[in-house]
């Protein structure tokens, strides 16, 4: 679910957690009012592509991704304006800080989740893209239409952990440019906090 950004695994875990309503309630109970989960990923993708559910239509989405990646990466303003399945950068940052401080899970599960995030293979050109080689990063990417996101932690040279959230929305630029922008933000913050000791 995290390492490979596997949507099927995401939906299986979401179901085990009680579904979107339960997950959103847990987030709100923990102070994250501006994060909401309304659909399984299958529903979100179905609405993005404008397809009906079912394996018969899955081939259309796969073919579109393969044959017209520029169309898939183009912003869909009505989809992005939808209030469903949204998170504010501030709420996501709060989530990351609370997770790292052990306020959301016990130590064993916190350590496990951070370890899994450190093995993410998607988005190598986002947060990690311009950091010094070997800089530890634990993160999770997200992409759909004009949206390219990356959130997680950068370990600074003095071993402090920097929580970082970079969202793009309705981007008209090509996906590599979006990733470069995320990488530049991460590099700027890394250099500032590494130099300042703050």
Structural class: alpha+beta
Shape: globular
Total domains, how many? Answer: 1
Arithmetic mean of pLDDT: 92
The span between the termini is 33 Å
**Considering the protein shown, what is the CATH homologous superfamily?**
DD-peptidase/beta-lactamase superfamily
- Residue share in helix: 40-55%
Strand content: 5-15%
Q: Do you know the CATH architecture?
A: 3-Layer(aba) Sandwich
Keywords:
alpha+beta, single chain, 3-stranded antiparallel sheet, 9 helices, 198 residues, Beta-lactamase
Description:
This protein has helices at 7-16, 20-29, 41-49, 55-67, 69-72, 77-81, 89-100, 107-117, 175-196, and strands spanning 137-144, 147-155, 161-167. It is of the alpha+beta class and 198 residues long. It has one domain (7-196): DD-peptidase/beta-lactamase superfamily (Beta-lactamase, 3-Layer(aba) Sandwich), CATH 3.40.710.10. The protein has a three-stranded antiparallel β-sheet, with helices on both faces. The longest helix is centred in the C-terminal third of the chain and has 22 residues, at 175-196. The radius of gyration is 17 Å and the shape is globular. The protein starts with 6 loop residues before the first helix and ends with a helix. The relative contact order is 0.12.
